[in-house]
Amino acid sequence: MYRILIADDEGLMLEAFKGVILAEFGDKCSVETAKTGRAVIEKAETFHPDIVFMDIHMPGINGIQAMREIRKFNNSALFYVVSAYDKFDYAKEAINLGVEQYLTKPISKSKIISVVEEATAKVDKVRDQRSNLLKIQEKLETVIPVVESGYVNSLLFQKEMAAADYYQQLLDIEYSQGYVMVVQFGQSYENGRLVSPVGMNVKAQSFYPEFRDVVKSAFPCVVGNIMSNRIPVVVPCEIFQNPYEDRIDLVEKARELVARLEGRLDAKFRVGIGRVWEMEELERSYREALRALNGSLSRVIHIEDLSQNGVYDEAFPGNDEKRMFRCLEEGNEEGMLQEVNFFCDWMVEHYSQDMNNIRLKILEFIIWGEKIAFESGAINYGFSYRRDYLDTAMSLSTYEDLRKWFQEKMVNVCRAIRDQKEDQSNSAVKKAMLYIQENYSRDISLDDVSSQVNISPYYFSKIFKEETGENFIEYLTRVRIDKAKELLVDENVSVKEAGIQSGYSDPNYFSRIFKKQMDMTPSEYKARYGK
């Protein structure tokens, strides 16, 4: 149904125009009329026309003024100016208002019909575009929670920064820092603690979509999956400029969030909040948020508000410490050594008379580094493996000797982590290549192969290209074409059969791919090299 509004101060003109439209288009159109500028504005407010035919000269408010008013509340209506005056000034004003055509009276029946056909076609196009946008939005509403969950899992639990970076681009996140809120839910409170009966997790699945809407309306955030009776929320942000004041504002916003959640959902909520960290370190914020929840009975608690928070008693380069261990975890030997040397210089500069404390700090760093390597599977550990560490540290009498020992131990750990990562990647790639070689004739995808090696598609694609020099599609195509060449030289195998057996069920597609790779069609290859 198309809603058409005709404005003209001549009654005969109105009836004639309306009659032509109804006679030609019947019940496809609903037509309303108005004789004054004021009347057409009022009518447009309730009728919401798709198409408006507007006379310029009408009593009181003229057509140009009326169109300007209607545009304020209806941006989609198509305007067609109708006038007995072909004046440039009017035409110029009409163009500024986005008028489709300037029609000069008298207008023939055929012209009315052609203009209405043109207008309805434009309305259909706009409606189709709007419908397509709604479909896309509907699909995005399904996909975005999955992407957000992948991002949260990559950051907080899997520590796959390559995958996290990919998700971050998809979600258009511009900040490289953020903090974590852990939202805990339950049925009721007992002694300040939330009680979650067995069925609460099932109930949470039903209110999760609305929970997401409420949280995302309160914070510019990324919402993770339900985990037992908790939901992690990542909030990307800048480093706080006024930590205390910003923390107070944040806690107040979280309190308002709890009130809104409990007002809309049949559950009780608590929120624990961690500190702002670099994205690579955001797992720490998650642990802090959990500690905040466990260390207090408050409905909303920030980790900084807990009295048991440990702090350095004096100036300490904590960010450099983070960078050193981050480089270690990445197998970045050069970056790690840079931070090792920085710490040696810093300790000597500030504590040159305290050799034993420097020895202790270096021992702490080495043991911490080896623990990281052990947890990543890069080294093994035995109770007596470090039996000589204390004796060695005490026997080194110069700062330079301590530095060299520190460097040696950290380099060994870093190389073990790097080699382990490379071995894992090489093993995964070799396993993937074998899977492709055994299944090339099937309809296999990147997702299929990456699932076989238990690596996310994005990260698998990256290491596959680094190891083989080809991306997945290039490698699969080469394997298939090599097999097709073997089959084509066999006189008992047709071109079509060669395509199917090498993984191409569509003969035309097989021919195009083969020619692109070999600069000749499968038939030409068979004719030239067939036995």
TrEMBL record:
Residue span, HTH araC/xylS-type domain: 430-528
UniProt xrefs under Gene3D superfamilies: 3.40.50.2300, Homeodomain-like
Organism: Blautia faecis
Swiss-Prot/TrEMBL keywords: DNA-binding, Phosphoprotein, Transcription, Transcription regulation
Coiled-coil segments on the chain, per record: none
Positions carrying 4-aspartylphosphate: D55
Keyword Phosphoprotein: yes
UniProt entry tagged with the keyword tRNA-binding: no
PROSITE patterns attached to this UniProt entry: HTH_ARAC_FAMILY_1, HTH_ARAC_FAMILY_2, RESPONSE_REGULATORY
Domain of life of the source: Bacteria
Role description: May play the central regulatory role in sporulation. It may be an element of the effector pathway responsible for the activation of sporulation genes in response to nutritional stress. Spo0A may act in concert with spo0H (a sigma factor) to control the expression of some genes that are critical to the sporulation process.
CDD domains tied to this protein: REC_YesN-like (cd17536)
Secretion signal, residue range per the UniProt entry: none
Protein name: Stage 0 sporulation protein A homolog
Residue ranges of every copy of the Response regulatory domain listed in the record: 3-120
Cited Pfam families: GGDEF_2 (PF17853), HTH_18 (PF12833), Response_reg (PF00072)
